[in-house]
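Milestone M4 deliverable, item 7.
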Amino acid sequence: MQTLRLDSTIAGDFSFFGETITFGPNARITGKLDIHAPKPIDVPASVAPADRVAYTQLSGPDYATEAGKTAEHVVKSVWPAVWATGIWWLLLAVIGLAFITLGAGLVARLDTAARGRIGRQLTLGVFGFAATVGLVPVFAMTLIGIFLVPFVLIFVVVICALAYLAGTYLIGSRIGERLTPIDSALKRLGVLVASIVVAGLLGMVPILGWLVTLALLILGFGAFGLLTLNRWTAADARRLAPPPAVGTVAPQTA
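Output delivered:
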């Protein structure tokens, strides 16, 4: 390209082939900046420090060829992120398939517990998410606990991944039920895969993405919280029930 105006953040290395490049107030390059141009170009320190800027002089550059090189560099830098995203989606789908096939009862109980209780689900989800993430600084503040921080981090990542998966599936199943009955494991798997892909794509949208991801995390934590609370309250009700009076016969249940 002949001229370029950069006014955004580029994560990683960036190569420019052309004549001039200007930088806006929001321009940032976190990696190396490799400039190929007929004349040196001043790069503000706020964009990239001098030790990460390299300049190569071009004489009569073939802009078509150089643009192709730039596009090739961009594609190569994007592929690792594409592969990482695909592997993450595949891992979530495999874990979800295991729960759908081997833990169908748990999935059904989660679905039942979360229906019609959005306010309570969100409240429990916020507390559950905060308590889980808060384990890291709590352990880090103690002399013994600081050695357990790596294991706590792994635990937090696993729990958050399961909560995200639960929230994604539950929202997807609610939407899917409006289109067709979800009455088989194959349909549940289809809903799961579609929900993971759509939620992942929405998560890439600037600003909106992290809000969507956070909402799915909270909904997932809330569903697990509702299920746990229901089991605890049922057990407490049985434990706190008054014993039958002396001389009476306890009612028989069919």
